[in-house]
Write a structure and sequence with these properties.
Blueprint (H helix, E strand, L loop, with lengths): L1 E7 L4 E8 L2 E5 L6 H9 L3 E6 L11 H8 L2 E4 L10 E2 L5 E4 L2 E7 L8 E6 L5 E7 L20 H16 L7 E4 L17 E2 H7 L9 H9 L9 H10 L4 H8 L2 E2 L1 H10 L3 E4 L3 H6 L6 E2 L6 H8 L7 E4 L5 H9 L6 E5 L2 H7 L9 E2 L1 H9 L3 E4 L3 H6 L1 E2 L23 E4 L4 H12 L5 E4 L2 H5 L6 E2 L9
Parallel strand pairs: 3-4, 4-5, 5-6, 10-11, 13-17, 14-15, 14-16, 16-17, 18-22, 19-21, 21-22
Antiparallel strand pairs: 1-2, 2-3, 7-8, 8-9, 9-10, 11-12, 20-23
Helix pairs in contact: 3-5, 7-11
Length: 468
């Protein structure tokens, strides 16, 4: 028996490859599926099943394409309805993979069809639970994504409580927990950086699994402090339910090298966003006016999904040379398939062509200290939890996730400064503000990490956020 976790850090997502005696099961695959096929070929195995823990909201799964390429059976849990051929498992249904078995355990709460998969080894012993978004390490799935009709967040949270206590917590302490996500995912509030654990460890450390916890306490704690989900979530759910274009076609359609003149023509004749994915240091020094920065070096795809509201939005790319197909692939993971092409030769070809360029003013934390002493306005683009932990006194919190909702709060006439934790998010925010005419924005290089090395006054008290 072989179990391999295939973890994608930029999505904080775990897919799983399971092989036994020449038969293979894949759980929650990414959209680009060739790596799973190659693994199976290397093991002289046949992909028999593709198990989906639920209709994912934060990424487009590769189940449809993988089934087309391998003839494997797609398996969902009870209540799931798809537009393509899939096996809808019953609660407790057992699937044989080589010398092991995988049992579908219906665990509604995060969504109604959410299902965990219990793997029993060759001796029939419970070995591992693939818990999807039902149980994370340190947290549980948010219960606010699948409300329908009279079904409320509290109703779903109550179902999640029951699922955890009747299906998950009854397992032996040594059963391995393989979740669908780790820290950085928007599918929970407090996920651990660890990506593999055990039932016993989670009973000791996960707030949601306290033995003495009542359902009422669980509902209150799980639903408290939930931020609105990113706008692309329901669009990804739709794609996962109804199917999507092959990623091979998406890459073929988007990987079109455009000369400077053709790039400019497409930009001027469509409503395409110019998305610059180079490193923030390169972007600061020069970029195409009106372009938006979201660098490949960070959690790229989730930020695209959070800040660009519509997955059908046409996109023109400025990428590092050689990273064109990688960028298109990573965009497709969250459903952004409408790439119209990329600037051939990257930004350098634009710069040498004599076309207009823009730059972003960026200063050190020491410069920010001087500006604060002169009563300049400063904004904190970190998440509310980071802000509440510690922040500059009298500086409001305008989280990057919701920047589009707070544009009016930034001054248009006077210079203002914006920082995040390390510098990546503040450059994203600054690029968005510049594209909207706020040319007086100044980025703080190094972010809060650098600010802490200065004498700027800070507080660890919880203060009201500007987030409404």
């Amino acid at each position: 028996m072989k179990i391999e976790q295939i973890y994608t850090g930029c999505l904080a997502q775990g897919a799983y490859y399971i092989e036994s005696n020449g038969e293979v099961a894949i759980i929650d695959p990414l959209r680009e599926v060739q790596s799973y096929i190659k693994k199976a070929e290397k093991d002289n195995g046949t992909i028999k099943y593709i198990f989906e823990t639920h209709f994912h909201a934060d990424f487009v799964s590769g189940h449809v394409t993988l089934a087309e390429k391998t003839a494997a059976t797609i398996v969902y849990g009870p209540t799931a309805k798809t537009s393509y051929k899939a096996h809808i498992a019953t609660d407790g249904e057992v699937f044989k993979v080589g010398n092991i078995t995988i049992t579908a355990l219906h665990t509604p709460g995060h969504t109604m069809e959410s299902t965990s998969y219990l793997l029993k080894d060759e001796k029939g012993k419970d070995h591992a639970i693939f818990s999807g978004d039902t149980l994370f390490l340190g947290d549980v799935g948010r219960p606010d994504l699948a409300q329908k009709g009279t079904l409320t967040i509290d109703d779903l949270a109550g179902l999640l409580y029951d699922s955890l206590r009747t299906k998950i917590m009854t397992l032996q302490d040594d059963v391995i927990v393989y979740p669908a996500h780790g820290a950085g995912s928007a599918c929970g509030k407090n996920l651990s950086k660890e990506t593999v654990g055990t039932i016993g460890d989670q009973k000791k450390t996960n707030y949601a699994l306290r033995a003495d916890m009542t359902k009422e306490e669980f509902v209150k704690e799980v639903t408290d402090g939930l931020l609105p989900p990113p706008a692309y979530f329901p669009l990804n759910v739709k794609m996962n339910k109804e199917g999507y274009q092959s990623i091979d076609e998406v890459i073929k359609n988007g990987a079109i090298a455009l000369s400077v003149s053709d790039f400019e023509k497409v930009a001027n004749t469509t409503d395409a966003i110019i998305l610059d994915v180079r490193h923030q240091f390169d972007f600061i020094k020069g970029f195409i006016p009106q372009s938006i920065f979201i660098g490949l070096g960070g959690t790229f795809a989730p930020w695209v999904g959070a800040l660009i509201k519509d997955v059908t939005q046409p996109i023109l790319l400025v990428t590092p040379i050689g990273e064109e197909e990688t960028t298109i692939t990573r965009l497709s993971r969250v459903g952004f398939d409408n790439v119209l092409g990329y600037l051939d030769g990257s930004f350098d070809t634009w710069a040498v062509s004599g076309k207009e360029i823009d730059t972003l003013r960026s200063v050190s934390a020491n410069d920010l200290e001087v500006a604060i002493n002169n009563n300049s306005k400063v904004f904190d683009a970190r998440k509310p939890g980071e802000y509440e932990n510690e922040h500059i006194i009298d500086v409001p919190n305008t989280p990057l996730d919701f920047l589009n909702d707070h544009i009016q709060e930034f001054p248009k006439e006077e210079n203002f400064y914006i920082h995040c934790a390390g510098g990546y998010r503040s450059v994203i925010a600054s690029s968005i503000l510049k594209a909207r005419g706020y040319h007086n924005v100044i980025d703080v290089a190094g972010g809060y990490k650098a600010i802490k090395e200065t004498n700027i006054s800070r507080t660890a008290n919880v203060c009201p956020s500007t987030l409404k």
